[in-house]
Amino acid sequence: MKANFAHKSIFAFILAALIDQLHKFYMIKIVGWQGGELITVTPFFDYVLVWNPGISYGLFAAIPAWGLIAIMLVACAGLTYWWATSPSNLVRWGLAVTLGGAVGNVIDRMVYGAVADFFSFHAYGYNWYIFNLADVAIALGLIALVWDMFTSKGEKA
């Protein structure tokens, strides 16, 4: 049973990274967006391409792309170890989806030197950070991990 779920979580990892990369490939290579293009979808949502050389909110943008790639690969290695040793199916799924999103953003840094972000929510003069499908996967994975933390009946250290 555990091995079967491990395969399903690997599928979730691949799907998260693939959906993110296919979206970016389509918008950048097929549609031809280069950065700064904007489509107003609603009064509170824009579809735009912004290149983020850092991480969330542009933090650590001064660190070269190769440095952020190295940091992300170390983090991914740690999460992979956690995934491989976790007895919880929900934790495995959450880590797999988080890793899929992280890998999607690492690929951006390797290919473009920055992460391509597209979705911008805003209202009443306030802007939420611009994000991509990899970020959505990371957030979903983290929600699963928090959910497991509060609902798990297993022994706590």
Helix-strand sequence: HEEHHEEH
Instruction: Estimate the global geometry from the Cα principal axes.
Output: globular
Oligomeric category: single chain
Beginning-to-end CA distance, first to last residue:
25 Å
Uncertain runs are none
Radius of gyration: 17 Å
Largest sheet data = 4 strands, antiparallel
Number of helices: 4
Mean pLDDT: 90
Which structural class should the secondary elements be placed in? alpha+beta
What is the share of helical residues? 55-70%
Briefly characterize the structure:
This protein has 157 residues and is α+β, with helices and mostly antiparallel strands. It has helices at 2-30, 65-85, 89-112, 133-151; strands spanning 38-42, 45-52, 115-123, 126-127. Helix 1 packs parallel to helix 3.
Account of the 3D structure:
With 157 residues, the chain is α+β, with helices and mostly antiparallel strands. Helix content is 59%, strand content 15%. The protein has four helices and four strands; from the N terminus they run αββααββα. The chain has helices spanning 2-30, 65-85, 89-112, 133-151; strands spanning 38-42, 45-52, 115-123, 126-127. It has a four-stranded antiparallel beta sheet with strand order 1-2-3-4. Strand 3 and strand 4 form a beta hairpin. Helix 1 (2-30) runs parallel beside helix 3 (89-112), helix 2 runs antiparallel to helix 3 (89-112) and helix 3 runs antiparallel to helix 4. It is globular, with a radius of gyration of 17 Å.
